[in-house]
Amino acid sequence: MTDKFTPTDRNRVMRMRDQAHYDRTTIYEILDCAFLCHIGFVHKEQPLVMPTIYGREGDTIYIHGAAASRMMNNLAQGLPISLAVTLLDGLVLARSSFNHSINYRSVMIFGTAIPVVEKAAKVHALKVISDQIMKQRFEDTRKPTGGELAATSVLAVKIDEASAKIRKGPPDDDEGDLTLPYWAGVVPFTMVAHPVINDPRLEANKQPPAYVNQYIDDFETMVTPTAKSRKKK
What is the full per-residue pLDDT of the chain (233 aa) written as tens digits? Predict the structure, then answer.
């Protein structure tokens, strides 16, 4: 396994090529900051894009859904798919409307989904997905019953081709626009996790586990690594 994905006709970034990244380190860092993706595939000659959660383990992305799901049933037939993840980091406001932009980190993956059928492998894949969202939570819950596993479809997508695209920094105004009397700069975005809201049916005085509170404290820097430097200021 090489440390980079080879650019091909499918994964090669065509616009703003200076923002392209093909190394696994960059691509996997972006994937590991998120847990929501959008999957594109063709069903009966109709292009479809579906949002779903995912988990990454090595070069494999796991997704799950209801066994009766149209998306899961179609993908289980071995259709080629594309999977996209985007993290929005800020609005870039230039002096000219043409040069307005956004700061972002995105990944595009191409591969083929394979059904995960064996029970132990299926449970492991579900744990990978759960850990992608919040580590320790899977161990702190009732595990799926046989009936629940039967009602759940799990697919493994081997990452065959991938690329990342990252835009960061200030506006890219034309030299001739720099003296115009308009403000320009960046409005940074971050995702934050708010304090928990207890289930109203929770037993009295039941407190959230420590890992949940820690997750809330760490969430912003987990999803937006640049937030760590801002917090230090």
Answer: 679 888 888 878 878 778 888 999 999 999 999 999 999 888 788 888 999 999 999 999 999 988 778 788 877 787 788 999 999 999 999 999 999 999 999 999 999 899 999 999 999 999 999 999 999 999 999 999 999 999 999 999 999 899 999 999 999 999 999 999 999 999 999 889 999 999 999 998 899 999 999 999 998 888 876 655 444 44
Name the pTM for this structure.
Answer: 0.87
What phi and psi, each to the nearest 5 degrees, are found at residue 101?
-155, -170
Comparing C-alpha atoms, which of 207, 169, 224 is closest to residue 34? 224
Domains defined for the chain, CATH in brackets = 17-89+102-168 (2.30.110.10), 191-233 (no CATH)
Backbone angles phi, psi at 115, to 5 degrees: -65, 140
Tokens of 42: 């063709």
Q: How far is CA 36 from CA 6, 54, 223, in A?
A: 25, 6, 12
Residues paired with residue 23 on neighbouring β-strands, in sequence order: 4
Residues 6+ positions from 76 with CB-CB distance below 8 Å: 113, 115, 153, 155
Number of H helices, E strands in the chain: 6, 9
Residues 6 or more apart from 32 whose CB is under 8 A from it? Answer: 56, 132
Residues 6+ apart with CB under 8 A from 110: 10, 11, 80, 81, 82, 83, 160, 161, 162
